[in-house]
Specification:
mainly alpha
Length: 185
C-alpha cells in the first residue's frame, strides 16, 4: 500500500508562492470577466472608466454607489467565499422598499432564516443581543427591523472586506488594465 504512505513535499513546494500565483491568476481571470462585462457596452458614457474605478478607493459608500463598483465588490467577496455580508446588506435595502405588509412579513422571515438565525445558511456576524432583538421585531416587521444588523454588517465590511478589496489583485489588476487602455487611446 505505497499510496497510503505520506510522501515528503517536494523541495520546490512553497504554499505562499503558490497562493500568490493563484491569487494573481484569479485576479486576472476575474478582471477579464469584469472588463468584458463593463466595457462591452456600446455607449462610452456607460463603460467602466479608470477615474470611476479610482474613486472606489475613497469610501465604501462610493464603491457601493457605483453599479460597476458594487458588481466588482460582490465578485471579489464571492471569490473569497465571504459574500454573506453584502448579500444581507443588499437584501435589506430591497426589503426597505416593500410597501405591502403581507409581503414584508414573509420577506422578513426569509431574511431572518437565511442570514440572522443561528446556524443559518448565510449567517452574518452579529452579537446575540442584536440577533434576539431582530427575532422579536420579525414577529411584527417594519421597514427598520433589520437596521441595527445592517449597520453592524456595513461596519464589518468597511473595516475588513473593503480594505482587503482595495489591496486585492483583482482591484489592482483592474486599475492597471484600465490605465493601460487609457494610455493606448
Amino acid at each position: 500500500m505505497p499510496g497510503l504512505i505520506p510522501q515528503p513535499l517536494p523541495t520546490h513546494f512553497n504554499m505562499d508562492r503558490d497562493d500568490c500565483r493563484r491569487n494573481k491568476t484569479l485576479g486576472k481571470n476575474l478582471m477579464c470577466r469584469l472588463k468584458c462585462m463593463f466595457t462591452s457596452s456600446s455607449a462610452p458614457e456607460s463603460r467602466l472608466s479608470l477615474e470611476d474605478t479610482q474613486q472606489w478607493s475613497q469610501s465604501l459608500e462610493r464603491l457601493l454607489g457605483s453599479k460597476y463598483g458594487l458588481a466588482t465588490f460582490r465578485t471579489f467577496l464571492k471569490s473569497e467565499f465571504s459574500d454573506e455580508n453584502i448579500e444581507f446588506w443588499l437584501t435589506c435595502e430591497d426589503y426597505k422598499k416593500i410597501t405591502s405588509s403581507s409581503k414584508m412579513g414573509s420577506k422578513a422571515r426569509k431574511i431572518f432564516e437565511q442570514f440572522v438565525e443561528a446556524e443559518s445558511p448565510k449567517e452574518i456576524n452579529i452579537d446575540y443581543h442584536t440577533r434576539e432583538e431582530i427575532k422579536r421585531k420579525v414577529k411584527s416587521p417594519t421597514p427598520q427591523c433589520f437596521d441595527e444588523a445592517q449597520k453592524i454588517v456595513y461596519g464589518l465590511m468597511e473595516r475588513d472586506s473593503y480594505p482587503r478589496f482595495l489591496r486585492s489583485e483583482m482591484y489592482k489588476t483592474l486599475l492597471e488594465s484600465l490605465a493601460a487602455d487609457n494610455a493606448q487611446r
